[in-house]
Amino acid sequence: MLGKAKIIKGIFWVGLKSIATHFMGFITFLILARLLSVEDFGKVAIVYLFTELATHVAGMGFAEGLIQRYEYKNRQFCSAICFVFFVSAVISLFLFSVGLFFHIYAYKGDLESIPLLLSFTALALLFSPSSKCFEAKYRKSLNIQKIAKYELFSIFVSAVVGVSLAFMGFGAWSLVFQTLTLNIVRFFSYFFTEVRSFEFNIDKKFIKSLSRFGLPTIGSKIMQYSSNKAAHGLLAILYDVYLLGIYSTGNKLMVVFKEQFASLCGHIIFPVFSEQQTQPEQLVKSLFKTIQLSLIFSIIIFSALSVFSDSIIIILFGEKWADSAKIFSILAIAAIFNLQERIFTACLKSVGKTGLLFKVSIINLILSISILLLVINYGIVAIAYAQLLKVLLFCIILCKVTSNIIKINLQPLRLLYFKHLFFSLFLIYLVYLNLLDVDFVSFEKKLLLLFLSAFIYLVATVLSDFNLKSFVFDSLRKIRILGLR
Predict the structure, then answer these.
(1) Are residues 334 and 431 in the same domain?
(2) In this structure, what is the dihedral angle of CA atoms 149, 151, 156, 161, given to the nearest 10 degrees?
(3) How many CA within 13 A on the CB side of residue 105?
């Protein structure tokens, strides 16, 4: 069982890991964005569309299965690693061969062609899915300290490689080799830790049992990934690498901030929910607490990021990325609902409802493509608004599905969301003015207004959960007892 002290320690290390890794990743991203062109990021964004999808398939959903499964032996764990590595090798070789074939016959002479970049980026697939399985073992026991050490080390080494190549003028290749280095270093860091107890074997029975959980997880991940990346795909097909570079960079910068919160869902919330899957009342209680805390932090932080999006982009990246500011601002609001989506997803996965998640993910994909097709001709800003609408609708669907599965009374949940919506009206108004490009006050006054709005929201939220009547009577009773003494 996961004790309270271990959970608190896990939260501390997740926070430290998240801040440190994303800070290092952000600094690297900042340097590369200043050194490389928008087109370089656009090309690599197209490559990542294929490799990230392949990573989900190669992982077989085993990482989540190893966390959700109550217990297993070391031999069974090693069997899962071996099987995932074999599948990864097959998919990696396939992508490498296809990319090389298209480069030779269609782009010969272009050393930065997308197929050639794809060929070498695909080599990272050999290591990434297996690393996630190693990581799952430590996540299950909330040994986040070890994950943090390996993650920081691999990010540091890959950052040195990527920035060095960018300074030497390697363009898009610097991003490719940064990705390769990150995955290779991370894999061998885990492997050398486990090498003494590692057994090369394939336990067919255990693989089959993991597949029952993993295969629906793959399906839901592919649907979710396709839904999230549908905008990137349509931009790549209908527009050009420049606009894709602008959109993907605004999105990636938002991910840097969003993952600070989302990492808690994977590293802490999912394992804790999994431990409580046989205690429905405790699970519901934990879910409400998680939603409450996530709303408080995400509304304040992402509203601030949205309001100051122009200043953030221009100061950090320069004028050439100014067009990404609007995308960043809109996706910052979407991140609030995206975090709620992840919490509900973690809850459903914890009770083993991966098949249901797959069905819901299909709805999400259909919803995403339908909305995008309606707005695709109106440019990348319209696409960002479409993503916001899609995330909001899907969050509502997931909320309804989760409430049906774990028997949540929807009335308190509605009141919880309405309360946060009402108390954050001033913040919403500031975001609304920013999205309309209304420059109504100076930067300093805008900062003051944001601070006051956030303060009002925070105080109102805290006081709404404060039982004043009980506090007064308890205080009077204590005073009376002290007086009698």
Answers:
(1) yes
(2) 140
(3) 6
My answer on whether 287 and 406 are in the same domain is yes
On the question of pLDDT at 290 being above 90, the answer is no
Residue pLDDT, tens place only, 64-120? 777 776 577 888 888 888 898 999 999 999 999 988 888 887 766 666 778 888 888
Same domain membership, residue 339 and residue 262: yes
Three-class SS string for 302-359?
A: HHHHHHCHHHHHHHHHCHHHCCHHHHHHHHHHHHHHHHHHHHHHHHHHHCCCHHHHHH
Position 482 scores a pLDDT of 46
338 plus 386 within the same structural domain: yes
d(CA 107, CA 301): 45
42 lies in the same domain as 186 = yes
Q: What's the CA gap between 70 and 65, in Å, rounded?
A: 9
Number of compact structural domains in the chain: 2
Question: Residue 390: is it exposed, middle or buried by C-beta count within 10 angstroms (0-12/13-18/19+)?
Answer: buried
pLDDT band for position 445 (cuts 50, 70, 90): confident
**Contact (CB, 8 A) for 217 and 349:** yes
Question: Do 221 and 193 reside in the same domain of the chain?
Answer: no
Half-sphere exposure of 229 (CA within 13 A, CB side): 18
The interaxial angle of helices 324-350 and 354-375, nearest 10 deg, is 160
**Same domain? 158 vs 246:** no
**Domain contains 20:** no
Domain that holds residue 291: 215-467
